[in-house]
Amino acid sequence: MNKGSVVLMMLLVALCFSCLSDKQKKVQADEQAMKKLEHLNMTSIDRYPLFDNCDEMLTTADCFYKELHSLVQQKLSTGDLPIHLAKKDSLYLSITVSKEGRITYDSLFKSAPSIDKDYMHELLKKRLNNFPVIKSAQKKSIPVATTYRLPVVFNPVDSLEH
Predict the structure, then answer these.
(1) What is the rounded distance in angstroms from the CA atom of residue 133 to the CA atom of residue 51?
(2) How do 89-97 and 142-144 pair as beta strands?
(3) Interacting residues of 64 by C-beta distance below 8 A, sequence separation 6+
(4) Which of 106, 77, 80, 103 is nearest to 93 (CA)?
(5) pLDDT of res. 86
(6) How far apart are CA 155 and CA 159, in angstroms?
(7) What does R_g of the chain's alpha carbons equal in angstroms?
(8) Cα 147 to Cα 115: distance, rounded to the nearest angstrom
(9) Could you give the percent of the chain with pLDDT greater than 70?
(10) Do 137 and 117 meet the contact criterion of CB atoms below 8 Å apart?
(11) Which of 64, 140, 158, 162 sits most deeply, having the most CB atoms within 10 A of its CB?
(12) Do residues 55 and 73 lie in contact, with contact meaning Cβ atoms separated by under 8 Å?
């Protein structure tokens, strides 16, 4: 055998062993995906949900929270709320924006001790519905569902200035 045949034979052997089977390729791809997933921070998002009048170029939460607060205030200010407060109190709502952009009230996360939590939760479920559909939050350009804690302050009616 001459040198050219030996080199050609070695190249063929190397080529055969360097080709991965489909199963091996899938295993390697899965391993790489898991490594990337381990390093992916799932507690943060790349873009907050967007209301129609928010600037898409801004990545801050300011416009989102401002609009969400405005919507919640609007829904809670229509008609009287059948609650009696002796002093100014606050609570935190848990609100979710689905990956499809649907806003839903989830629960009463935290409230002042003077507020009946179960009663307030039922009242909020009745009032906080039919939100507009918005653009959802994004992580790596993929729509994701996100949950937010929204503070709400209640003032007694007799303490409001007319």
Answers:
(1) 8
(2) unpaired
(3) 48, 49, 50, 51, 54
(4) 106
(5) 60
(6) 7
(7) 28
(8) 23
(9) 76
(10) no
(11) 64
(12) no
Alpha-carbon gap, residue 57 to 130, rounded angstroms: 27
**Which residue bears the tokens 């924006």?**
97
d(CA 104, CA 130): 8
Is this model's pTM higher than 0.70 or not? no
Q: Which two tokens stand for residue 10?
A: 């070695």
Q: What is the pLDDT of residues 148-158, one digit of tens each?
A: 998 887 766 65
Q: What is the mean pLDDT of the chain?
A: 79
User: Would you state the structure tokens that stand for residue 104, as one six-digit string?
Assistant: 């839903």
Containing H/E element for 80?
none
86 vs 123: which has the higher pLDDT: 123
Cα within 13 Å of Cα(29), Cβ side = 7
CB burial of 41-55 (b: ≥16 within 10 Å; e: otherwise) equals eeeebebbbbbeebe
Split at pLDDT 50, 70, 90, the class of 134 is: very high
Residue 64 sits at φ, ψ, to 5 deg, of -60, -50
Residue 157 tokens read as 């009616």
